[in-house]
Amino acid sequence: MELLIILIYAAILGLAAPYVNVRSLDYGQLVPSAIALASGAVVWLILLWSNLGATNALTWILVMVAMPVAMAIGANRLAKRRAASDAALLVKIKTASAPELVKSAASATAAEDYVTE
Protein backbone atom coordinates (compact mmCIF):
# COMPACT_ATOMS: atom_id res chain seq x y z
CA MET A 1 0.00 0.00 0.00
CA GLU A 2 2.82 2.40 0.81
CA LEU A 3 4.48 1.84 -2.55
CA LEU A 4 1.19 2.72 -4.25
CA ILE A 5 1.36 6.13 -2.57
CA ILE A 6 4.92 6.54 -3.84
CA LEU A 7 3.75 5.58 -7.35
CA ILE A 8 0.96 8.17 -7.25
CA TYR A 9 3.39 10.79 -5.95
CA ALA A 10 5.78 10.00 -8.82
CA ALA A 11 2.92 10.43 -11.30
CA ILE A 12 2.07 13.80 -9.77
CA LEU A 13 5.72 14.84 -9.99
CA GLY A 14 5.76 13.79 -13.63
CA LEU A 15 2.72 15.94 -14.34
CA ALA A 16 4.34 18.93 -12.66
CA ALA A 17 7.77 18.37 -14.23
CA PRO A 18 7.28 20.44 -17.41
CA TYR A 19 6.34 23.45 -15.30
CA VAL A 20 9.29 23.35 -12.89
CA ASN A 21 12.30 23.68 -15.20
CA VAL A 22 12.53 20.07 -16.34
CA ARG A 23 13.13 20.04 -20.10
CA SER A 24 11.01 17.08 -21.11
CA LEU A 25 11.13 18.03 -24.79
CA ASP A 26 14.62 16.55 -24.95
CA TYR A 27 13.72 13.05 -23.76
CA GLY A 28 9.98 12.52 -23.30
CA GLN A 29 7.20 13.00 -20.78
CA LEU A 30 7.55 9.77 -18.78
CA VAL A 31 11.25 9.98 -18.03
CA PRO A 32 10.97 12.40 -15.06
CA SER A 33 8.29 10.18 -13.49
CA ALA A 34 10.43 7.11 -14.00
CA ILE A 35 13.46 8.79 -12.43
CA ALA A 36 11.36 9.94 -9.47
CA LEU A 37 9.81 6.51 -9.00
CA ALA A 38 13.13 4.68 -9.18
CA SER A 39 14.81 7.04 -6.74
CA GLY A 40 11.84 6.89 -4.37
CA ALA A 41 11.85 3.11 -4.40
CA VAL A 42 15.59 2.96 -3.73
CA VAL A 43 15.39 5.47 -0.87
CA TRP A 44 12.37 3.64 0.54
CA LEU A 45 14.21 0.30 0.52
CA ILE A 46 17.35 1.77 2.07
CA LEU A 47 15.34 3.36 4.86
CA LEU A 48 13.39 0.17 5.52
CA TRP A 49 16.57 -1.88 5.60
CA SER A 50 18.03 0.57 8.11
CA ASN A 51 15.10 -0.23 10.45
CA LEU A 52 13.24 3.06 10.11
CA GLY A 53 9.95 1.33 9.27
CA ALA A 54 7.05 2.38 7.08
CA THR A 55 5.19 4.15 9.88
CA ASN A 56 8.06 6.45 10.78
CA ALA A 57 7.52 10.03 9.63
CA LEU A 58 11.20 10.46 8.83
CA THR A 59 10.94 7.73 6.19
CA TRP A 60 8.10 9.51 4.45
CA ILE A 61 9.73 12.93 4.64
CA LEU A 62 13.03 11.69 3.22
CA VAL A 63 11.32 9.82 0.38
CA MET A 64 9.04 12.72 -0.50
CA VAL A 65 11.97 15.15 -0.58
CA ALA A 66 14.39 12.83 -2.37
CA MET A 67 12.03 12.07 -5.26
CA PRO A 68 11.69 15.59 -6.73
CA VAL A 69 15.36 16.36 -6.10
CA ALA A 70 16.46 13.21 -7.92
CA MET A 71 13.95 13.90 -10.69
CA ALA A 72 15.27 17.41 -11.28
CA ILE A 73 18.94 16.44 -11.15
CA GLY A 74 18.51 13.31 -13.27
CA ALA A 75 16.33 14.96 -15.89
CA ASN A 76 18.63 17.96 -16.28
CA ARG A 77 21.72 15.74 -16.58
CA LEU A 78 19.96 13.62 -19.17
CA ALA A 79 18.98 16.73 -21.14
CA LYS A 80 22.57 18.04 -21.06
CA ARG A 81 23.98 14.70 -22.24
CA ARG A 82 21.36 14.52 -24.97
CA ALA A 83 22.17 18.05 -26.16
CA ALA A 84 25.90 17.29 -26.18
CA SER A 85 25.31 14.09 -28.12
CA ASP A 86 23.12 15.90 -30.65
CA ALA A 87 25.74 18.63 -31.07
CA ALA A 88 28.49 16.05 -31.61
CA LEU A 89 26.36 14.23 -34.18
CA LEU A 90 25.62 17.50 -35.97
CA VAL A 91 29.34 18.30 -36.14
CA LYS A 92 30.04 14.82 -37.47
CA ILE A 93 27.37 15.21 -40.14
CA LYS A 94 28.61 18.66 -41.16
CA THR A 95 32.25 17.56 -41.41
CA ALA A 96 31.57 14.34 -43.31
CA SER A 97 32.42 14.31 -46.99
CA ALA A 98 29.77 13.71 -49.64
CA PRO A 99 31.00 10.22 -50.75
CA GLU A 100 31.07 9.15 -47.13
CA LEU A 101 27.44 10.21 -46.65
CA VAL A 102 26.34 8.47 -49.86
CA LYS A 103 28.16 5.30 -48.83
CA SER A 104 26.57 5.27 -45.36
CA ALA A 105 23.10 5.93 -46.83
CA ALA A 106 23.55 3.14 -49.38
CA SER A 107 24.64 0.66 -46.72
CA ALA A 108 21.67 1.63 -44.55
CA THR A 109 19.17 1.03 -47.35
CA ALA A 110 20.90 -2.18 -48.42
CA ALA A 111 20.72 -3.56 -44.90
CA GLU A 112 16.97 -3.04 -44.67
CA ASP A 113 14.51 -4.56 -47.11
CA TYR A 114 11.79 -2.13 -48.10
CA VAL A 115 8.69 -3.38 -49.85
CA THR A 116 6.94 -0.75 -51.92
CA GLU A 117 4.00 -1.44 -54.14
Please give a handful of descriptors for the protein shown:
single chain; 117 residues
Describe the protein.
The protein has 117 residues and is an all-alpha fold. It has one domain. 74% of the residues lie in helices and 0% in strands. It contains 4 helices and no strands. Helix 1 (2-16) runs antiparallel to helix 2. The longest helix is centred in the middle third of the chain and has 39 residues, at 57-95.
Distance between the termini: 54 Å
Q: What is the tally of beta strands?
A: 0
Structural class: mainly alpha
Estimate the mean pLDDT confidence.
81
What's the helical proportion of residues?
Answer: over 70%
The poorly predicted ranges are none
Question: Roughly what fraction of the amino acids lie in strands?
Answer: under 5%
- Coarse shape: elongated
Radius of gyration: 22 Å
Question: In DSSP terms, counting alpha (H) and pi (I) runs of 4 or more, how many helices?
Answer: 4
The helix/strand order is HHHH
Largest sheet: none
Query: Structurally, how many domains make up the residues?
Result: 1
